[in-house]
């Protein structure tokens, strides 16, 4: 199971990244858990200074932008 973490405070861009991430995971048919990390202290432990960010299995893959479903799909395979 892949652990997909959206790092952000819940702003519109964070919500858009979460929706795109979920759509990509579903389109690929992978087993996943989507976790929204909203605590700034926790976000900083990832070394992230700009949100939204996407982490896959604890590794940061994107910072400061909303990736498209296609872009996220490439990160998940």
Notes on the protein architecture:
By secondary structure, the protein is α+β, with helices and mostly antiparallel strands. The chain has a single domain (2-76), classed as Glutaredoxin. Helices cover 40% and strands 27% of the residues. It has three helices and four strands. The protein has helices spanning 12-28, 40-45, 69-76, and strands spanning 2-7, 32-37, 53-56, 59-63. Strands 2-1-3-4 form a four-stranded mixed beta sheet. Helix 1 (12-28) links the parallel strand 1 (2-7) and strand 2 (32-37). Helix 1 (12-28) packs across helix 3. The relative contact order is 0.29. The model has no long low-confidence stretch (mean pLDDT 97).
Which CATH class is shown?
Answer: Alpha Beta
List SSEs in N-to-C order.
Answer: EHEHEEH
Q: What is the CATH homology-level superfamily?
A: Glutaredoxin
Shape: globular
Condensed summary:
By secondary structure, this protein is α+β, with helices and mostly antiparallel strands.
Give a quick set of tags describing it:
77 residues, single chain, alpha+beta, 3 helices, Glutaredoxin
């Amino acid at each position: 199971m892949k652990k997909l973490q959206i790092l952000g405070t819940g702003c519109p861009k964070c919500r858009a990244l979460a929706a795109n991430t979920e759509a990509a995971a579903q389109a690929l048919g992978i087993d996943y858990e989507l976790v929204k990390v909203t605590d700034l202290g926790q976000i900083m432990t990832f070394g992230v200074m700009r949100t939204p960010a996407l982490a896959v299995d604890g590794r940061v893959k994107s910072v400061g932008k909303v990736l498209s479903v296609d872009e996220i799909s490439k990160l998940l395979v």
